[in-house]
Design goal:
The complex is a heterodimer of chains A (91) and B (306). With 91 residues, chain A is α+β, with helices and mostly antiparallel strands. Chain A has 3 helices and 6 strands; from the N terminus they run E-E-E-E-H-E-H-H-E. The relative contact order of chain A is 0.26. Chain B has 306 residues and is of the alpha+beta class. Helix content of chain B is 29%, strand content 35%. The chains are: A alpha+beta (91), B alpha+beta (306). At the A-B interface, strand 2 and strand 3 of A face helix 6 and helix 7 of B.
Chain lengths: 91, 306
């Protein structure tokens, strides 16, 4: 089983000084995200696998795969919990 | 140069005159025409209005299939407005009982319809006072209903500042930059601020349970437009006024908070959010505690900024 991730159509994103503000229009909540979070959400405008998200972090930051995986896992779980990211499971 | 104002069409002459006069009194110079078509009589049931997406005092905003037009329902008497997604032609139905309460209709229902219709021409409401100091710097003071916006605006007027609004301001793009537009409405203070100001120019407004006064009566003047340079996100209650600078990203989060309509209507949200971003980047913002020391020396406000 693999999973793919994509931004919810209910979110709007704006970038400022490397950080971001994300609006969730359906929940009427807003979030501040770090530069790595912003990078991930920008990539998730189209559907991506977890491994691709990790690769994007590896290509941008001076981190090893384990650190990048941990960052991606934590951020994607939080985004999914707040409805900012839609997770689709594929057999 | 001709000024574009709201156009009101109504089958009831008294309603048309009252609404047109109230709108003209706000002195909004619109970037594009907005038309209100008002019919008196049948008002569609709120049940037909779809999912509630926002509530204001006395007003419910909803939308739903098939058109996803925005619907604004008045809860004090039957009245309802329909705002099509891509149009500035607004349809309003008001019942006979609603027509008997036109003052409430204007100040609780129609003001919400106006705020939503202005989004369609790129003007985005922010809960903020606006003013321009004698050196030409534009100020916004954003915060909740007890943040001290009106009292501070009155203090600014008493020192000869140009004051736009004490509460209702519209942010807009302007030839590659941005500005803040104001409605022409009197400053309205609660008893505490009015008493501290000690000015006998104020008149009691029983409907709002406030004391009202025009900036000119305090020694200032009114302006319909400022270019914001400084934004204060304010809280009242301190004895000594303090201002702490905040980062642009923090200012943006605060602007989102006080321009909450950004969450409505997905088609308009990104433009609204991007405008707030531009303003957060190009202004200097502070978290301010507005203190009673301002009553002794209102000029302290500009003096304490780093």
């Amino acid at each position: 089983m693999t999973a793919t991730y994509v931004c919810s159509p209910d979110i709007r994103i704006t970038e400022l000084d490397g950080e971001g503000i994300v609006l969730h229009l359906a929940n009427r909540r807003y979030f501040t995200v770090s530069s790595s979070g912003l990078l991930i959400l920008s990539a998730l405008k189209t559907q991506q696998t977890f491994d691709h998200v990790v690769d994007i972090l590896l290509g941008t930051y001076d981190v090893n795969r384990e650190e990048a995986s941990e960052t991606a896992t934590t951020f994607l779980a939080e985004c999914a919990a707040h409805g900012m990211v839609v997770v689709e499971k594929h057999p | 140069m001709s000024i574009t104002r709201f156009q009101v069409n109504a089958d009831d002459a008294r309603i048309r005159q009252t609404v047109q006069s109230w709108l003209d009194g706000l002195r909004l110079e619109l970037p594009a025409p907005i038309t209100l078509d008002i019919t008196r009589g049948f008002v569609p049931s709120p049940i037909e209005a779809g999912r509630t997406i926002f509530e204001q005092p006395a007003v419910t905003i909803s939308h739903g299939p098939p058109s996803y037009d925005l619907r604004v329902a008045w809860r004090l008497a039957p009245a309802c407005a329909t705002l099509p997604k891509d149009s500035t032609q607004i349809h309003i139905a008001i019942s006979d009982s609603g027509a008997q309460r036109l003052d409430d209709f204007l100040n609780t229902f129609l003001i919400t319809v106006i705020i939503l219709s202005l989004r369609r021409v790129g003007w985005h409401h922010v809960h903020a006072a606006s003013a321009e100091d004698p050196s030409g710097r534009g100020w916004l003071i954003a915060g909740d209903a007890r943040a001290g916006k009106s009292t501070t605006a009155a203090l600014m007027a008493s020192r000869g500042w140009r004051v736009g609004s004490d509460d209702t301001t519209f942010l807009a793009r302007d030839n590659g930059a941005f500005c803040a537009w104001s409605t022409r409405q009197p400053l309205a203070l609660r008893r505490g601020g009015h008493t501290l100001l000690g000015d006998n120019q104020f008149k009691r407004n029983t409907r709002r349970n406030k004391f009202v006064c025009w900036p000119e009566q305090l020694g200032g003047s009114w302006t319909n437009r400022i270019v914001p340079d400084i934004i204060l996100f304010s809280k009242p209650g301190a004895r000594v006024t303090t201002c702490e600078p905040i980062k642009p990203i923090e200012a943006l989060a605060e602007l989102v908070r006080w321009s909450a309509w950004v969450m409505l209507e997905p088609d308009l949200a990104q433009n609204h959010l991007d405008l707030l971003n531009t303003i957060a980047q190009r202004t200097t913002s502070y978290r301010a505690q507005l203190g009673s020391d301002l009553f002794q020396d209102p000029t302290r406000l500009s003096a304490i900024l780093p």
